[in-house]
């Protein structure tokens, strides 16, 4: 299963889970945004963080008021090993040479959404 297929499945699962959640809730379950996620840097303006998995592969989604191009530049500056490996349907996928960290940046209203996928935490920290 390709990364984008898994990401689409995770998004669909998140939407279906939200649909069957308690209807009295007006907001999804959010956690405070950490400074980093398995040694992957997080911009200081990250908000609305949602963790989907703590075990490998681990994933976290957040929103930033930065636009898509600003976030891509921010991640490439913070982690010079990241390069654009794919652009599809408005989404840009960044990955390191070891392919253990993937960053997906998508436009999202007034800013962008970032999906972090950590394939292997030991290699992600290097």
Summarize the structure.
With 126 residues, the chain is an alpha+beta fold.
Give the strand order, joined by hyphens, for the main sheet: 3-4-8-7-6-5
Low-pLDDT ranges: 7-25
How much helix, percentage-wise, in residues? Answer: 25-40%
Mean pLDDT, nearest integer? Answer: 78
What is Rg?
A: 14 Å
N-to-C CA distance: 26 Å
Oligomer status: single chain
Structural class: alpha+beta
**H and E order:** HEEEEHEEEEH
Strand fraction equals: 25-35%
Largest sheet: 6 strands, antiparallel
Helices and strands, with pairings:
Blueprint: H1 3-20, E1 36-37, E2 40-41, E3 47-53, E4 58-64, H2 68-78, E5 83-88, E6 91-95, E7 101-107, E8 112-118, H3 121-124
Antiparallel strand pairs: 1-2, 3-4, 4-8, 5-6, 6-7, 7-8
């Amino acid at each position: 299963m390709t990364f984008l297929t898994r990401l689409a499945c995770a998004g669909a699962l998140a939407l279906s889970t939200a649909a069957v959640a308690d209807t009295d809730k007006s907001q999804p379950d959010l956690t405070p945004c950490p400074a980093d996620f398995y040694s992957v840097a997080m911009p200081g303006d990250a908000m609305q963080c949602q963790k989907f998995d703590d075990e490998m592969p681990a994933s976290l989604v957040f929103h930033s008021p930065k636009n898509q191009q600003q976030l891509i530049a921010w991640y490439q500056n913070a982690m010079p090993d990241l390069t654009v490996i794919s652009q599809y349907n408005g989404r840009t996928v960044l990955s390191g040479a070891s392919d253990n960290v993937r960053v997906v940046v998508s436009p999202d209203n007034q800013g962008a959404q970032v999906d972090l996928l950590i394939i292997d935490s030991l290699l992600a920290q290097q």
